[in-house]
Every structure is written in C-alpha cells, then in structure tokens.
Amino acid sequence: MEKPSLEINLPDTHEEGKLYVVDSLNNLNKLNVCPDESQHSLDEEENTGGTGENMTGSNTGNQCLFFITFILTLIISLALVSFVIFLIIQTRNKMDQISSRLLSEKKNIEELKRINNILLKHLSRSGIKD
Fold it and tell me: Which residue windows are transmembrane per the record (predicted)?
C-alpha cells in the first residue's frame, strides 16, 4: 500500500497559511491606519471584491455634486455683484440729481439775496424806513 504523500499537502497548507497571515496583517494595518469613519469604506471595498466599483460611483457623484454647487455659487455671486453694481449706479444718479438741485437752489438763494439788497437800497433812497 502506498503511503499518502503528506509532503504535497503540507506545502499547500503552508502557502495557504502564509496567505492567511499576510491577509490578516493587511487587515490589521488597515485598522491601524484608517480612522473609524473610513472603516465603512474599507468594508464596502471588501464586499465589492476590491474592485472599487462602489467607490468610483460615489466619487463621481461627489464630484458632480461639488461641480453643481460650485456653478450655483458662481451664478448667485454674479447675480449679487450685478445687483450691487446696479445699486451703486442708481445711487450715483440720485446723488447727481440732488447735487444739481442744490446748485440750482443755491443760485435761487443768491438771486433772492441780490433782489433783497436792491429793495433795501431802493427803500433807503426813497426815505421809507421801518
């Protein structure tokens, strides 16, 4: 009777043991390197077979969400800046109108002062005094 060869099975078991040890060390390293929040992503990677298909979809979704948020922020910022520029122009126009009114009122007041002086001179010459 032939004796079953244990030598053939032992190297296979030894190789499997090495793989188990390396896999265990990798898992331990992942636990030590990654914080608790990222452990969930490691579990997902193990569940997908390490292909990263799940993470790629999530990453693309995050990039798309970031891009949309960035574009919306730019549009809102542009609208706000345009509104502020519009208000500045309107305020400048109102200030110009007020300045022109003040200048015309100043001219009117000076004209009234001149007329008042003429009347006072005329009344003092005519001899009518208060």
Answer: 65-89
Dihedral sign for Cα 61, 62, 63, 69, please: positive
Query: Strand, coil or helix: what is 35?
Result: coil
pLDDT tens string 27-86:
777 766 655 555 555 555 555 554 545 556 678 888 899 999 999 999 999 999 999 999
Please give the Cα distance from 100 to 108 (Å, whole number).
12
Whether 20 and 27 have beta carbons less than 8 Å apart is answered as no
Tell me the domain boundaries of the chain.
61-129
DSSP string, 4-25: P-HHHHHHHHHHHHHHHHHHHH
Give CA–CA dist 91/27, Å, rounded.
67
What tokens were used for 107? 């001219």
